């Protein structure tokens, strides 16, 4: 009994800031008459840029999910599509973020084959691959979503 009372106490102390921000974001997107696919592309671009500053995928998702999932739900976009757009942007730009935990390892292996390789040179080499992956995976997601195919098990669009 004491645990439930403590949980109720804690719940009352939460700010619900994520929900407030989600409602405001949905309002902004609706006021600009932004469609679902355009909103997903904007989320992908935002996530790709954010990936340069926050290396951890789970930290980024923990920061974004409480805001974008409810906001996009209010626009009629399923959580699966939001997470798909997030994963496309996050995974395709991992190689160009110096904050990625494996970036020093990639640099060390690159130095094995090119002794003058630097961080800037590695980023320059990998940028076309990151952009290509972003565009190809983004296109595949758009086709999949546009065709109305389910984005996960037991999910219907």
Q: Could you explain the architecture of this structure?
A:
The protein is an all-alpha fold and 157 residues long. It has one domain (16-146). It is built from 7 helices and no strands. Helix 4 runs antiparallel to helix 5 (79-92). The longest helix is centred in the C-terminal third of the chain and has 28 residues, at 119-146.
List keywords for this structure.
single chain, 157 residues, mainly alpha, 7 helices
Cα distance spanning the termini = 41 Å
Q: What is the percentage of strand-forming residues?
A: under 5%
Shape: globular
Radius of gyration: 19 Å
Q: Which consecutive residue ranges, at least 5 long each, have pLDDT under 50?
A: none
Structural class call reads mainly alpha
List SSEs in N-to-C order. HHHHHHH
Helix content: over 70%
Oligomeric state of the chains in view = single chain
Mean pLDDT: 87
For the largest beta-sheet, the strand count, sense and barrel status come to:
none
What is the number of beta strands?
0
Q: Count the domains.
A: 1
Count of helical stretches: 7
